[in-house]
Amino acid sequence: MNLSRTWTGLVALLLAGTTAGPVLAATAPACDLVVAGVRPDVGTQQAWNRFGDRAEAGQWAGADGTYSAALPDGRVAWLFNDTFLGPVGPGRSIRPHDPVHNTIVTSRPLTTLLGGGTAQEPLPIVGPPGTDRPWYWNADGIVDEGKLYVFEAQQQKAGEGHFGFEWIGTDLAVLSLPDLKAERVVPTYDSAGITWGVELLPVGEHIYIYGVRQLKEWPGTKEAFVARARKGELDGTWEFFTGSGWSADEHDSTAIAGDVGSSYGVSEVNGQYVMVTTDSFLGSAIYTLTASTPFGFAGVTRRQVYDTPEGQPEYDDTASGDVYTYNVAAHPVLSRPNTLVVSYNVNSTSIDDLFRDIGNNRARFLEIRFRPQHPNCRTPHA
Q1: pTM (2 d.p.)
Q2: Number of H helices, E strands in the chain
Q3: CA-to-CA distance for 224 and 169, rounded, in angstroms?
Q4: For 77-93, what is each residue's pLDDT tens digit?
């Protein structure tokens, strides 16, 4: 991305949609995809800062989550989890308040969408407010059959403190277009302890659905899994990758990568598939893995490509006010040939850090640049 891009040009980029590129037949060996460099996507960051800094009551000031879905009319739906609202004051300060658990910001122009209520008592797009009952955090979303499907990770309180919550299941929210109103929420697969929907990737006739499972008690190591559904059947029957094929039984799922974050990105770049992730529990390192299929990451060596300046190299769970980074998401809607734009979330163990400066709860964006491949490179069909 051109770092000198103006605000007008950048908003136009935020509005751009995307489609999956062609998957080529297996007529030649797979070609390596090499990271040529990583740099902060300053233009996108400035766009979000400008939008958040101008927030009035009931408008987006900062959040985590940060998934993006291209809409048919050219807009982008940005899907956020815990969202803090304006007004934003001096030094990016905000009034102390409880966040809204899931929101959407649409482009053209950037607009905050809530599930109703008032600026003082706003409601999430899906599910109840507050933490007295289980609530939803948005995962990834995709348009299919004229609707926006958003995976919703259901959470409930589990103890005290900053990390006093636990995942208890996953549902699928179906939103109407173009108004993005929740029409229904339906159950989906969650019996194998895998949180599905942290990434969605359309390839050919399928939508690949990526998930994550924690191996042991919090904050244990996490593994990545993948399933797939035929387009038009996301709320129907899936197939689960077993390591050598596909099964209709979720419990046959086999991990495709280990030590991944609670969220990670998978995208097609130049006919190859790139996974971008953090470590399983916080830390400042961001890694890439490359495969020739959407499910071929097992055994692939991951490579560190970035060290987040905001993150603590060694997280101290006894400290109050540690700023940390986590949860990568990929954004093909912002990417160009030979590049992939990704975001990572920033947060603090002290909520006062967010009230003092809501910039401590805004995603950061990176542009990963890949070395162009030879034009004759071809990769196996997924």
Answers
A1: 0.87
A2: 3, 24
A3: 17
A4: 999 999 999 999 999 99
